[in-house]
Design goal:
It contains eleven helices and 14 strands. The chain is α/β, with parallel strands linked by helices. Strand 10 and strand 11 form a beta hairpin.
């Protein structure tokens, strides 16, 4: 899939107008404060996601706007349709003239966004890595986001019962069913990522990298069985802690290099390369499972990559066969001559 043309009005600090885009690699270039990240964020929103960083929807509307912000896009590729988004305190989406839910739009227009803070995939908290897995699962399995939300509500309910020193038996079977389903989706995704990671972009980081979902599901067992067993084993500790100590809300995706934790073994530049390689693998998984080419959105990808790393990244992204957007204060991959360049003027704010 790809954006042919996009338009915006009253979206953050962007001037009202249209942008045309190339089929492959697209650079969004401009000085600090020009609105590069905001323009990238508008593509994220018009493809069915929310604000970067999980901010409030209302923050997307320009301070000086008398009404809602508007986004529109013409989409081409495996499917052709127009998309519209009206943003106020919430986002209303239309695709092909019909109102659609966010999950439905994401299933028709898959996109993945990656920000400078995503280096925390390697060195940050487990919640960052769970969020990464959940975004991919939400693209691959449209009902995933809803069922994950139901599971989180169940976790809160179980916490409330534990704090009140009441029986949690009524929540146990739904907890195992929903939690086991979420964990099984993540397990299948990690297996697909691992298979693709081995062949996707090894030259960007030629080191023995491995990763696994923790806690691991034993061979021959199901996610449901392991979750039920862990709940039983942690029953007394759970009552003292007043919160569930087992379940997908405590999962982690652990990275290793030569058998040691990657967060301790790799430099920041190598971590950035690892993330790029993981992103390429994720794109291939989404393309294979959804039969649609994903759109990749990168904010300041060239940061902390040396000249060799930038050259490799540019060559891999240009040859991926997808539409890719990369922001920067200057052209991040000067060796790529086929990229489309969109320049933003300095901000007047």
């Amino acid at each position: 899939m790809r954006f042919v043309e996009t338009a915006s009005r009253d979206f953050r600090n962007l001037k009202a107008g249209y942008c045309s885009w190339g089929e492959g690699l697209n650079f969004i270039i401009g000085p600090n404060g020009a609105g590069k990240t905001n323009l990238l964020e508008s593509l994220n929103v018009i493809s069915g996601w929310g604000p970067f960083g999980g901010g409030k929807i209302a923050s997307l509307v320009s301070w000086t706007a008398p009404g809602p912000a508007l986004l529109a896009a013409s989409v081409d590729g495996e499917r052709c349709f127009d998309v519209e988004a009206m943003i106020s305190s919430r986002t209303t989406l239309r695709a092909g003239g019909e109102r659609v839910k966010h999950a439905e739009l994401r299933s028709r227009l898959p996109s993945l966004a990656f920000l400078p803070s995503d280096i925390n995939l390697v060195e940050g908290a487990a919640s960052v890595r769970r969020h990464f897995l959940d975004r991919l699962c939400a693209l691959w399995i449209p009902v995933y986001a809803r069922r994950l939300s139901e599971y989180r509500q169940l976790v809160r309910h179980r916490c409330a019962l534990l704090r009140q020193n009441r029986s949690v038996r009524v929540t146990t079977i739904p907890f195992i069913k929903l939690g086991g389903w979420v964990r099984e989706c993540r397990r299948r995704l990690v297996e697909l990522l691992r298979e693709t990671f081995l062949s996707e972009g090894p030259e960007i980081l030629p080191l023995p990298i491995s990763f696994e979902l923790h806690p691991a599901i034993p061979l021959g067992a199901s996610a449901y069985q392991t979750l039920e067993a862990s709940l039983e084993a942690e029953r007394e500790r759970e009552r003292y802690a007043c919160r569930p100590l087992s379940g997908p809300h405590r999962d982690d995706l652990r990275f290793f290099c030569n058998g040691r934790p990657a967060a301790l073994s790799l430099s920041r530049g190598q971590k950035r390369r690892l993330i790029l390689r993981l992103i390429l693998a994720a794109g291939r998984v989404i393309e294979g499972q959804m039969r649609l080419k994903p759109i990749l959105l990168f904010d300041d990808l060239g940061a902390e990559l040396d000249a060799e790393g930038r050259a490799l990244a540019g060559r891999l992204l240009a040859g991926a066969g997808w539409q890719v957007f990369v922001t920067g204060t200057e052209i991040p991959f000067p060796d790529v001559s086929t990229a489309f360049c969109h320049r933003l003027p300095p901000s007047e704010v």
